[in-house]
Amino acid sequence: MADPMIQLKDIRFAYEQSEEEKTQPLQYALDGVSFDVARGSFVAIVGSNGSGKSTIAKQMNALLLPTSGTVLVDGMDTAVVSQTAPWEIRKKVGMVFQNPDNQLVSSIVEDDVAFGPENIGIDPAEIRTRVHQALTLVGMYEHRKKGPHLLSGGQKQRIAIAGVIAMDPECVVFDEPTAMLDPKGRREIMGIIRMLHGQGRTIVLITHFMEEAAEADRIIIMEHGKLHADGTPAEIFSKEDLGVLGYPFAVRMARRLRKAGIDVPADIVTDEQLAEYLCRSK
User: Fold this and answer.
1) Which of these, 271, 104, 105, 95, lies nearest to 176 by C-alpha position?
2) Contact at 8 Å (CB) between 61 and 89?
């Protein structure tokens, strides 16, 4: 793959065992996982609970280090760089978590967004510019003087994203960022993710919503700590049985239309693509 942003090479990872568990064989949350993430791409990683997808996310910015194998971020070995300069990894790969309350650290919104840049020594004038730009991008500038505790869940998540964007990372990893939000909040966050990708940033989205995964360039399916499938949305959703993961609404509807004799292209995987096709076909 040309110009990889992130490379995982035969990664194995096991969480620390309790005293009771130490009598049992080591259980790997990730077991021999290898793939690259191309710079500027949009990759969705999906899988059932316990599949290892969130563990992979934390490997990508050195929150976790592999038990064996190698993770490279822009050519930097996370196991080596994290010992001396972990911020070098975090400046390249930002991370947004499922629960924004776990990521907000200040009592005022704009101070929270400034926290990351301050910690890597950015000039104060540049920090003010970054905070303004990041809050404007996520539509939260008017709330800059508020306390995060006064905001809705979706607004808090947008503030968390702004805090990451203020660090100006080349890649943003989203670990189920919409899992705790209502449908409106999910749409808003996905709109921001699309905007960030449109700016040229590399996006890795961990999700269990297949409608969200359908918007990516590429989908990776994890199963029991192993890479189970890897392909474009059209390739992945052409498979006959995705089990508990299911299919996006547009894919299910397109299949029903084809059964009814309407020649809907097989590469339609999002609601927007389906609506556009049906409008053109009138």
Assistant:
1) 95
2) yes
Helices (H) and strands (E) in the chain, counts: 11, 10
Q: Residues in the chain, how many?
A: 282
Kind of pairing between the strands at 218-223 and 226-231: antiparallel
Angle, vertex CA 23, rays to CA 21 and CA 26, nearest 5: 65
Output the six-digit token pair for 7. Answer: 């490379």
Provide the residue type at 20 as one letter: E
Residues 6+ apart with CB under 8 A from 208: 46, 47, 48, 176, 179, 245
Instruction: Report pTM.
Output: 0.92
Q: What does the block give as tokens for 177?
A: 């960022």
pLDDT in tens, the chain (282 residues): 468 999 999 999 998 877 666 667 778 999 999 999 999 999 999 998 889 999 999 999 999 999 999 999 999 999 999 888 888 898 899 999 999 898 888 889 999 999 999 988 899 999 999 999 999 999 999 999 999 889 999 999 999 999 999 999 999 999 999 999 999 999 999 999 999 999 999 999 999 999 999 999 999 999 999 999 999 999 999 887 787 788 999 999 988 998 998 888 888 899 989 988 888 876
Domain ranges of the chain: 4-17+27-247, 248-282
**How far is 14 from 19, CA to CA, in rounded Å?**
15
Q: Does domain 4-17+27-247 have CATH number 2.170.270.10?
A: no
